[in-house]
Amino acid sequence: MKTGKPFIGQEAAWREWLAAIESERMHHAWLLAGAKGLGKQAFARAAAAELVREPGARLPDAEAHPDIHILEHLPANDDEAKKKAEGKPYQTKRNITIDQVRQMQHRLTTRPTMGNRRAIIINPADDLEKNAVNALLKSLEEPPTGTYFLLVTHQPGRLLPTIRSRCRVLRFASLMPDELDAVIRRDVPQAGAEARAAAIAASGGSPGVALNFVEQDLGGIHQLMLRILREGDADFHLRGALAEEMGARPTRERQLAALELARSVMVAELASAGRARQLRIIEAHGTLTGLSNQAPTYNFDAGLLIMEIGGLLASAAMPREAAR
Q1: Which PANTHER family does the entry mention (predicted)?
Q2: In this predicted structure, which of 36-45, 117-126, 193-202, 279-288 has the lowest mean pLDDT?
């Protein structure tokens, strides 16, 4: 049996993948399904590297291997492409396009370059254009020999049933507190016990959210979000403090982390809320999810965005308050 990269909290999925590689009848298409922030993207790359590795060879770099093709959001324009090339944060297009799928399919007309296997990663498959989905379906129906698909999905229900029916599912579960603590200790060793505890409490079981929490120093923002959600904010005082804590010119990464944190705070509050308040939380969470989906590609005004987040938290607060 091959040995591979350990994935804290996802060891069962990793063992299942390694066992499939060793089997004689490995399925050709896989759905890596679970909430955002559970490590599916890193898992897909490591899984693809294991798949194409030749016997006795070192584990290859998934980003550079000629038989691993990754379809993901492209830079939004030429200027953003330059930022990506320079290693800077960059904005992306909203969807994975049909042109990307067609370019991938053109490669499938040739044999793998270095071995007998080729991996196609689509991250995330949720964001494929409609025409791109239809084009991909043709490849899933008649996959070339030695070609394997890994479709990362945060919301499997958004995919066509005809796509889902052709895939074997690997499910990614939320992590337990001790597993989250191990992830933070591994990736942010300088994080203190208090910061780790706060990140774990705010993460909703997602290591991605927990790491963002620690790296973006969201402790103050977290406390203010909890106060708004539980106390309301009739005089806008807490929302003003939230905007001040966020900063005048926060990075896009900090904005995205704040959005994910607000969603996690709402989900955590849901269990203890009464029926009427649950409905308000669900409605506000849905709006936050829409903002999270738009934020990577839209240039939101940072001040307005954090006030919108605060308003949605206030709308779901214990005392009824309409978002403003």
Answers
A1: DNA POLYMERASE III SUBUNIT DELTA (PTHR11669:SF8), REPLICATION FACTOR C / DNA POLYMERASE III GAMMA-TAU SUBUNIT (PTHR11669)
A2: 193-202
Residue 301, both tokens? 């005004």
Instruction: Compute the distance between CA of residue 4 and CA of residue 49 in angstroms, rounded to an integer.
Output: 9
Closest CA to 255 of 121, 140, 91: 91
The residues, any chain, with a CB within 8 Å of residue 148's CB and separated by 6 or more, are: 26, 28, 29, 30, 51, 117, 118, 119, 120
**Owning domain of residue 32:** 11-171
pTM to 2 decimals? 0.75
Confidence of residue 321 (pLDDT cuts 50, 70, 90): very low
* Residue 110 and residue 227 in one domain: no
Domain presence at residue 117: yes
Please give the pLDDT value at position 6. Answer: 58
Number of independent structural domains in the chain: 2
Question: What is the structure's pLDDT at 323?
Answer: 43
Please choose, from the candidates 161, 202, 160, 163, the residue with its C-alpha nearest in 3D space to the C-alpha of residue 180.
Answer: 202
Identify whether 98 is part of a domain. Answer: yes
